[in-house]
Amino acid sequence: MIITVPIPKKNTHRSYSVVMGKFCEAYGDHQLSELTVDSILDFLNQLTDGCKPQTKRIRYGHLAAFFNFIKNNIISDFISPCDSKMLRKLYRPKVTIQWDILEKETVDEIIFRTTNTRDRLLLELMARGGMRVGEVLKLRVCDVQDRKLIIHDPKSGKEQEIIFVPQKVADRLKEYIRANKISTRIFPIGYEAARIIIRKAGHLVHIHLRPHDLRRYAATHASRCGVPIEIVSKVILRHSNLSTTQMYLGKISEAEAMKWIENMYA
After folding, report:
1. CA-CA distance, 229 to 31, in Å (whole number)?
2. Tens digit of each residue's pLDDT (9 = 90 or more) over 8-17
3. Which CATH number fits domain 104-264: 3.30.1330.50, 3.30.1330.10, 3.50.30.40, 1.10.443.10?
4. I need a surface site. Which of 23, 65, 130, 145 has the fewest CB within 10 A?
């Protein structure tokens, strides 16, 4: 089987060369009719072993484009192995989720209308400190060092991480510990109980509120206030790379974009 794919653009040729070169090595002496879905799946698995999901989807797309070229220009009744339902599902494009970001006034009202001190602190630590619900629930009295909170065995895999919270939140947390004579875990409740508390807090302002909504709000609010993206990423969210942080930030409207541009050159 002789494979010739006319590719006019240099960059496109460079992108396809890895896939088509390996494909020729593996199936250059085969007939197109001999190719099966399983053989193509095995080829893609070997080709993309250890690659990121996005790279795997790109490699699949290159091979699918080649088969489509064969079908559209050479063999009209050719059935592309990449057209199988299984492969399309396996390598389907990742759906980008655009989260709805809470407004500052909404979060302030939720916290203000939550009268239970424990529940309010739970909300504030996530909304003002960017903490995950699991991190809040693991907090112990010995982890509180004024405005610094120490997180042991964090999600990042590090030994510990430091979270900074506003002075008012830190003062309320220390007073809550003192008033309730707490000596170990500050919030001795489970994940489900915490989720129920957060969901009920959202009902106070007629919204469906999830724990991570408050963490996303903390990041977006800081970004909108002019905090450098590096601080948002490394200090507030404690992400290892900026690309993860960018997924948290809310979509910028045209009006907001124009306002920031105007402020820059005012």
Report:
1. 53
2. 556 667 778 8
3. 1.10.443.10
4. 145
